Amino acid sequence: MLFAETFSEFYTKVAASLADGTFAKLTFAKTIGNTDLMNIYIRPIVENDVLQLELKFKFQQEEIVEFYSIEAAFDRLLPFINNPFSSVILFTIEFDLVYKLNKKKTVSITDQPPTFGNASPVLLEYLASK
Q1: What is the pLDDT of residue 71?
Q2: CA distance linking residue 67 with residue 116, whole number of Å
Q3: What is the band of 33 on the pLDDT scale with cuts at 50, 70, 90?
């Protein structure tokens, strides 16, 4: 797939932020064209003492929630790069990392000052129990 390598590089930072307790949230935004799927919101959850990700697909009329391991979530999310999303933002307490496609389908990954001051409470509680 065209964006597998660049998204893999980005997703490595997602996994690292989950491992080190700095992850706040992950959001797929900025759709290309008029689409029913508006956003995908990703947050950590703990199921049977295993850290997983909740993927909330926000459509214009409904929401669908799915649960995946951290590794399996990558394969589920990859097809949405450029179809329909041109932007993915990783929010951590250290920085925000923006994965963006321009009109020529060139990928840029840039960091910005953090939006959130606190990591996901679910993640912090899970890491404290380990």
Answers
A1: 96
A2: 24
A3: confident
Residues 24 and 92: beta-carbon distance below 8 Å: yes
Which amino acid appears at position 8 of this protein?
S
Average model confidence (pLDDT) for the chain? 95
pLDDT of residue 95: 98
Whether the model clears a pTM of 0.70, i.e. scores above it, the answer is yes
Please give the Cα distance from 121 to 124 (Å, whole number): 5
Q: Which two tokens stand for residue 9?
A: 């590089």
Q: DSSP readout, 21-85?
A: T-EEEEEEEEESSS-SEEEEEEEEEEETTEEEEEEEEEESS-EEEEEE-HHHHHHHHGGGBTTTE
Q: Are 43 and 49 in contact (CB under 8 A)?
A: no
Count of beta carbons in the 10 Å neighbourhood of residue 47: 10
- What percentage of the chain exceeds 70 in pLDDT? 99
**Unique residue bearing structure tokens 């706040």:** 24
Question: At a CB cut-off of 8 Å and minimum separation 6, what does 116 contact?
Answer: 24, 25, 91, 92, 93
